[in-house]
Design brief:
Radius of gyration: 34 Å
Oligomer: single chain
Structural class: alpha/beta
CATH superfamily: Ribonuclease H-like superfamily/Ribonuclease H
Number of helices: 9
CATH topology: Nucleotidyltransferase, domain 5
Helix content: 40-55%
Number of strands: 5
Number of domains: 1
Largest sheet: 5 strands, mixed
Order of helices and strands: EEEHHHEHEHHHHH
Length: about 230
C-alpha cells in the first residue's frame, strides 16, 4: 500500500479569488513506513505575494521569481503521486487548490483516495486541539524546525503524526498481539484435558474378538497381552 503525505503553501486562502500554490511537499510511505523518498516543488505563482501569506511561510516574490510555474512541474508531480492514497491535514483546502491548478492547465482533477488526518485526529481525540502543532505536542514529535510553514517540513512532521494516529510505526502490531493472545487463550482452552465421565469401552465385533483371541494364543504362554478382551 503506497501513500503520499502531502502539503501545500499558497498565496492565500481561496483559489477562486486568484490565489495560487507556491510550494508542494510530498513524503512517500509504503505499508505505513517512510521509504525515504520525498519531493518538493517551489512554484512561481505569477502574482504578487500578499503580506499575510508571506508572514505564514516566508516565501517571497524574490525567492519565487526564478522558480518554475505549475504547468512546468505538473507532470513530475502527477507521476510522483501516481494512484497512491493522499494523506493530507485539512485535505479539502489542499485538494481544492490542486484541482484548481489542474483545471487551469486543462488536466483532470485528482481522483486519488484521500486520508484526512484532521478528521482522523478529531475522531480519535474529540474536543481536543487537532492542529499539526498540537498533534506534534501530543505525540512528542520534535517540531523545532518548523519556524514557519513549509510544505516539505510539514509533510515530514505530518507523516510522523499520521503513523501515530494509525497506532505507531507498526500500526497493526497491537492488533496482531491481541489477536495472537486471544488465539493462544482459545487454543489453550480447547486443549485442556478433562476427566471422562464415562470410561471408553471397546466396541469390537464378535469376529474381531475371536480373531484377537487366536492371535494372543499364538503368542505363547509368556505373553503380557490379556487372554480376553
Amino acid at each position: 500500500m503506497r501513500e503520499i503525505v502531502l502539503d501545500t503553501e499558497t498565496t492565500g486562502l481561496d483559489p477562486d479569488e486568484g490565489d495560487r500554490i507556491v510550494e508542494i511537499g510530498c513524503v512517500e510511505l509504503e505499508q505505513h513506513v517512510p521509504t525515504g523518498k520525498t519531493r518538493c516543488w517551489y512554484i512561481n505563482p505569477q502574482r504578487k505575494m500578499p503580506t499575510a501569506a508571506f508572514d505564514v511561510h516566508g516565501l517571497s516574490d524574490e525567492f519565487l521569481r526564478d522558480k518554475k510555474i505549475f504547468a512546468q512541474v505538473v507532470d513530475d508531480f502527477l507521476e510522483f503521486i501516481g494512484d497512491a492514497t493522499l494523506v493530507i491535514h485539512n485535505a479539502s483546502f489542499d485538494i481544492k487548490f490542486l484541482n484548481a491548478e489542474l483545471t487551469r492547465e486543462q488536466r483532470p482533477v485528482l481522483r486519488n483516495d484521500v486520508e484526512d488526518t484532521l478528521e482522523l485526529a478529531r475522531r480519535r481525540f474529540p474536543g481536543s486541539p487537532a492542529s499539526l502543532d498540537a498533534l506534534c505536542r501530543r505525540f512528542r514529535i520534535d517540531n523545532g524546525v518548523r519556524e514557519k510553514h513549509s510544505a516539505l517540513i510539514d509533510s515530514k512532521l505530518l507523516a510522523e503524526v499520521y503513523l501515530e494516529l494509525r497506532g505507531g510505526r507498526q500500526p497493526d502490531f497491537r492488533l496482531n498481539t491481541q489477536t495472537r493472545a486471544k488465539a493462544t487463550t482459545e487454543t489453550s482452552g480447547s486443549w485442556c484435558v478433562y476427566p471422562r465421565r464415562v470410561p471408553l469401552k471397546p466396541r469390537l465385533t464378535k469376529e474381531e474378538r475371536i480373531d484377537h483371541a487366536k492371535f494372543v494364543e499364538e503368542l505363547g504362554p509368556d505373553t503380557l497381552w490379556p487372554r480376553s478382551s
